[in-house]
Design a protein that fits this description.
299 residues; 2 helices; single chain; mainly beta; ten-stranded antiparallel beta sheet
């Protein structure tokens, strides 16, 4: 939604008293000539708005009774009849060509009084704002990668690359599972990534340190490469060799690779290449309960 606020200057010219038939003060009226500053016809919003009509009404400030109203002419001038010595306010609205029945902008002046001894001219200022319910302000939305963006936003495509596999209590990873896991990391190292998540599909922990992620991807086949307890987004991340292949873990405190966690510990361990039943898990990481392990890379 796009909103803006401008100030309109309404020039009030006291013309003359036009009703002296009654001695009651409330029956005496005057004509007021109105004129406001011309502005560009096209307004800037979610799309161009072409103003077709400007309208004012003058009403009793206390009772909100409308004494008179008029549509301003092409010169943005108009005349209304109002009572003398009554506290008044001016409401301004304009309407676009394509939506002539719903006001696009509106505003209300501070109260003022026109009396017999008022100056010949005065300026009333009106703060004006865009109607948020006008159709021009209704921006279409669309969802991209679970993020809501409006149709004027430049969309940036998000790439996700993930691995997941089901592991069974008391059983080592199969040869196929090992090959799939290794292939995943080989393919991942061909790109740079912004964040990584590991764990179970319903319980993941994420690191957004892109330098850490891409550094380990480029060094994953280096037997001497190791990361011990690097703090990232609330967890301590560890990378090392456990068994004959890569382990990636995140803990609530600094830990080495190949750790055996209890079910009450906080940790996320991915190591299907260990060569035995301790392939990792969320919480308990040695001889863990059957579960799905997952790694998600995103850029």
């Amino acid at each position: 939604m796009i909103t803006k606020k401008t100030i309109l200057g309404l020039l009030i010219v006291l013309i003359s008293s036009i009703s002296c038939e009654s001695q009651k003060e409330e029956d005496i009226t005057v004509n007021l000539n109105y004129e406001h500053r011309k502005e560009a016809k096209h307004r800037t919003g979610s799309r161009p708005v072409l103003i077709a009509k400007h309208e004012i009404n003058v009403r009793d400030y206390q009772e909100q009774y409308i004494y008179d109203s008029t549509i301003l002419d092409d010169e943005l001038k108009g005349t209304v009849t109002v009572p003398v010595d009554i506290e008044l306010e001016v409401r301004y609205e304009n309407y676009s060509f394509d939506v002539p029945k719903i006001y696009y902008e509106s505003g209300l002046s501070d109260p003022f009084i026109v009396g017999f001894h008022s100056p010949a001219t005065r300026t009333v200022t009106i703060p004006v704002s865009v109607n948020p319910n006008h159709p021009s302000q209704m921006v279409e939305e669309e969802v991209v990668d679970n993020e809501t963006v409006d149709n004027e936003t430049i969309l940036i495509e998000t790439h996700i690359y993930s691995w997941s596999d089901n592991f069974t209590y008391g059983q080592s990873a199969t040869q196929e599972q090992e090959n799939t896991y290794k292939s995943f990391w080989d393919n991942a190292s061909n790109y740079t990534w912004d964040n990584i998540s590991i764990g179970n599909p319903d319980d993941l922990v994420t690191c957004t340190n892109s330098t850490f992620i891409n550094d380990f991807l480029q060094n994953k086949d280096n037997a001497s490469f190791e990361v011990y307890g690097l703090y990232c987004d609330g967890m301590y991340w560890t990378i090392g060799k456990c068994g004959w292949g890569l382990e990636l873990s995140a803990f609530d405190r600094q830990r080495r690779d190949c750790a055996c966690l209890k079910s009450t510990d906080i940790g996320y361990t991915i190591r299907p290449l260990i060569g035995n039943v301790n392939w990792g898990g969320v919480g308990k990481s040695c001889n863990a309960d059957s579960q799905t392990l997952q790694v998600i890379l995103q850029r």
